[in-house]
Each structure stands twice: as C-alpha cells, then as structure tokens.
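#struct-pred

JT: dropping the chains for the assembly here, can someone run the whole complex?
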Amino acid sequence: MTSRPPRPRERGIPEATVARLPVYLRTLQALQDRGTLTVSSEALASAAGVNSAKLRKDLSHLGSYGTRGVGYEVEYLVYQISRELGLTQDWAVAIVGIGNLGRALANYGGFGTRGFRIAALLDADTAMVGRRVASLDVGHIDTLEAVVRDKGVSIGVITTPAAAAQAVATRFVEAGVASILNFAPVVLNVPDGVDVRKVDLSIELQILAFHAQRRNGDGGRGAEPAGLELT
Amino acid sequence: MTSRPPRPRERGIPEATVARLPVYLRTLQALQDRGTLTVSSEALASAAGVNSAKLRKDLSHLGSYGTRGVGYEVEYLVYQISRELGLTQDWAVAIVGIGNLGRALANYGGFGTRGFRIAALLDADTAMVGRRVASLDVGHIDTLEAVVRDKGVSIGVITTPAAAAQAVATRFVEAGVASILNFAPVVLNVPDGVDVRKVDLSIELQILAFHAQRRNGDGGRGAEPAGLELT
DNA sequence: CCCACTTTGTGCGTGCTTTCACAAGCGCGT
DNA sequence: ACGCGCTTGTGAAAGCACGCACAAAGTGGG
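RK: done, full complex below.
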C-alpha cells in the first residue's frame, strides 16, 4: 500500500554502480598517493578487483571523463566521483550506542576519509554519559532531537543492542534524519524516503559458512576439518 | 571451463537468496522466542522486510517446507535454514588485528547466534600479545599457521589496518583458510576458490551520502522533480 | 599528413532477480 | 463428504546487471 508518488528514477545511476564508486574512489586515491597521474580502465579495474568493461560502463554514467588512447586523469576522476557521491560537502554523523562497537567506530580515525564528521555520541547508560570518547563527550540519548537539530546531523549510526535499535531509528527519523546506518541485528521499520543500510557481522559469517559447507562435502555433517588443499 | 573439483552447480541456490536466508532465520528465531508456532509467508516477509513472493521463492529453493492454507512451521523452518546455511556444525573463527574493532568483535557475545566460535585472537603488536580479551589470550601473528592447524580454523576475520590486510589474507589462504571476512578498507587479492566478503563502513556511509545528496537539491544538477519536499 | 596503435564508450546478447498472477493444496465448518 | 477460504509454490514476464566485442576517438612516429 505504498502510495508513493511516481518514482522518476531521475538521473538513474544504477544502484550497483553507486555501490562500486566508493571502491574506485579509494583505489584512485591510493594511486594518487603514489604519484600516478593517469590510469587506464584496465589498470584501475584490476586494482579495484572488477572487470574493465564494467568499470568503463560505471564511469560512463558520470560522464565522459576519460581520454581515448590515454586513460583517465586520476585527480580529475577523484574529484568527479567525490562530487557525485556527495563527499564535497560535510556530513555530520551521530553514533548512538557507545558500547564496544560504537567506541570502535568513534575511534576509527579515517572515518571514510574526508566528508564525514562525527558530531555526537549518545548512549542510554548514565554511567557512559559524560565520559570522553574520541575527543567527544558522550551525551544522553534523550538529547537526540536537540543534538540532531543543533549539530545538523544528517546521518545516524546505530550501534545499540538489537532491542533498542528500532526506537532509536524512529527517533532519528522523527528528528529529520533520513540516512541511517544500522549495525544492530534487526530489520528496521522506517517510512518511505528514509534510507537504511545495514552492516551485519553474523549475516556475513553465515554466508561464508554456506559457501564453505558447499566447498566441503556438504551434507548435514561437518565432514573433514578444513580442506587442506589449495591451488 | 577448467576441471572444477566436485560439481560447480549442484543444487544451486541463487546467491541473492543465500544473502537473505540469514535475515529470515533471525526473524524466525525472534518469532520462536515469542512462542509463535506457525507463520505465513506474508507475515514473515513483512517482518523480514521483503516481498512475500520473493520470500516464498527463496524458501522454495530449500524444498517444500510450507503447508498450503496454513503457512510455515517456525521451528521446522528454523532448522531447515540453519542446516542449509551450515549452522548445524561448528565453525572456528580467528580474528587478526585486535584493535578497537577486533576487540569489539571478540566481545560481541552473540557472534551470530550459535554455529560460530571464536577460536583465536592474533595481533602483530607485542604489547597486545598475551593480553586477555574476551576470555582468550591474544597470540602473535607469527603463530597464525599453527593456530589455524591446531584449532581447526576455517574462517578468518581481518580487522588489521589496511596496510597489513593483504599479507594476513595471503597467510590465511596458504594456511588453508578459504573463507575470509575483511574489515580492512582494501581490495584483497586471493586465488580462485577462496571466498572473501568485505564489510566496509566508509563505503556504506558514502552510499548513504549519495542518496542523501540526491534527496536534497543535489549537488551538481538540479534534477529535482516538483513535489519533493520533506518537513 | 597519414598510419599504426592505444584506449574509451557503448550496443547487444545472456543470464540472474524480482514481481505478478494463479492453479494446486490443505484445513475447517457444515 | 463437500465446498469454501486461505496460503503455498511456481510459470511467465519484466527489469537489471554483466561482459563481449567493436566503432569512435585520440596519440605519436615517420
């Protein structure tokens, strides 16, 4: 029953492409640090771990930024991708749930290179409130709305226990945050127009386990311990 | 095609389906905890945040475990999915890189419910080696091969700085670990047959930023359709 | 100026994913 | 026993994504 207005798909850059742009960007920045000035699609694709045709098609969605016979100018491409991803502006991030994971994220210095700034840390535990983590004072969850408003937070990160995640998400949304990164192992329910991405360790492990089981003898049992052969 | 060891296809469950099974599993376990005995595809899909037709098709790849007119028996389905994902056996996990993130993972109690067991923590920093984290003694990275062999490690988790990740991955592979979960922001280069999954915070943030920028007035092109307003 | 060589940008075929729509099955009340 | 209502399982269609292969476009040498 989503009576959403027509989805104009707009200037559609395919979602699959968007997901790869950050990888290209990082690869290009590594090249830049090494002083590389231009790079061919073949070389860049190889470094980014993708097919070169796919890379060229991905980049073609941004525009024609390459030079035939030469390749792409690294610096220029870095700028174009950054701009497309919105990294030329400043994004204020709030992290809710300052447990082990929340602290790890807060201290993760290169929080994705530039563009993102951790503006606030919030927790429900009064024993945690007031403590200083990563050069920020941990605030109480009750101040979420004020913090979002005063600090201009536009991205919310949820690292709370599963039980608290939905409530935090709802408060984020009602406070006007439309981008949420969820580390809690629950499916968040949010209104249309709010963008939720989830990072889930146990899901990744389970997918690995599935393939590992298939590689081994499969069946219901564990078969032999890890296969010893490779190559 | 070259000579693939056993069978390349077997009972091909689509990759997209595999990625969703853990979500269904978790949702079912939540229902189970609440005492629910059976669930319809509609209700389960809603709770898992997917379309009910998709859910039914996904489950149909495992077999016909539902009852028409009734739905799915929760407990039975939990078992079937668990078995398919390989969670009925025990997976020994080694975490390399005991920084903030590594510690967070080590302490993350419900490491994805049952099925996974953290068997070892390794680090290159001698100041960290010997310390006790999450009831385990941190070992030195040089013992990786011995630990993998002795503890039967089949899944490696990399939480090192980017610069060290590739070397660790290579050592894992050569030690016989064919499943790697990588948190370091680099593209890992591994031989065929090794399964690498990556979890990358900054990539997720950048994708969120892209969509957020698009929701707003956009940064490069004013392609904003009429009637897009919020608050 | 022309030609050989390099590399981009893309049309097109192929295969995977999602969604729709409905026949087949199952339980229950009568 | 029978039919009604509900729900699964699945063809079929539509939509995406991927990768090949090649024309177009640019560079550099003679």
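JT: nice. Residues 14-17, 51-54, 57, 67-70 of chain A lie near DNA strand D (CB under 10 Å from a C1'). The two ends of chain A are 52 Å apart (CA to CA).
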